[in-house]
Amino acid sequence: MMHPHENDLALFAGGDLGCFRRWRMERHLAGCDRCRAGVDEFSTLRTQLRDLEEMPAVHWARLAAEMKANIHLGLEAGACVPDAGPNPFSPSRAWAAYAGLLALLFVAFWVGRTVPIATPASDADAVVLAATGNSIELKHAGSSLSLMHTRANDVTLSVSAQGAMRARYVDSATGQVTINNVYVQ
């Protein structure tokens, strides 16, 4: 015979089981003395706990007087403590933080700028793959092919070491995405 778990017995004793689980528990308890004794123990324990929950009478006026005295004592003790020293957020530190932020922004702008790839004059037959602000250009022997999107708001360019370039354009009017992949071999 499978006996229910103690958690289920405790829930049944407190009246917290759902309809179906309660019905199944009642059927089991009708034929199982051991589980019925467990439910009786949980019921007795619940009544004992309920008796322990009764709070003693609280003298609110005395409690309020103690709280006020503790607050006054804390204020007096705080007045005795000397000043902690210079302010950690002084204007000179703020200016130093601003200068560091400006230096970081300048370096990020300088590193992130696009540098065109120059081809040597003697290498006229070379295939050059370059990225501009809104296009990918493929140049060879004086001819060029540009893949661009004129209404692009957000352009993401990526280059691989194998000679491939990818541009992802998001059309600002429609929200459509165009992806151009160019491979050079």
Catalogue the unreliable spans.
none
Content-based structural category = alpha+beta
Strand order of the largest sheet: 1-2-3
Mean pLDDT across every amino acid position: 80
Largest sheet: 3 strands, antiparallel
What's the overall geometry? Answer: flat
Helices, by number, come to 5
List keywords for this structure.
185 residues; flat; three-stranded antiparallel β-sheet
Characterise the protein shown here.
By secondary structure, the protein is an alpha+beta fold. Among the domains are: 6-52, no CATH class; 147-185. It is 46% helix and 22% strand. The chain is built from five helices and six strands; from the N terminus they run αααααββββββ. It has helices at 6-14, 19-31, 33-52, 60-80, 91-112, and strands at 127-131, 135-140, 143-148, 152-159, 164-171, 177-183. A three-stranded antiparallel β-sheet has the order 1-2-3, with no helix packed on it. The chain has a three-stranded antiparallel β-sheet with strand order 4-5-6, with no helix packed on it. α1 packs across α3 (33-52). The longest helix has 22 residues, at 91-112. The protein is flat, with a radius of gyration of 39 Å. The chain starts with 5 loop residues before the first helix and ends with a strand.
How do the strands and helices of this protein lay out in sequence?
Elements: H1 6-14, H2 19-31, H3 33-52, H4 60-80, H5 91-112, E1 127-131, E2 135-140, E3 143-148, E4 152-159, E5 164-171, E6 177-183
Antiparallel strand pairs: 1-2, 2-3, 4-5, 5-6
Helix pairs in contact: 1-3
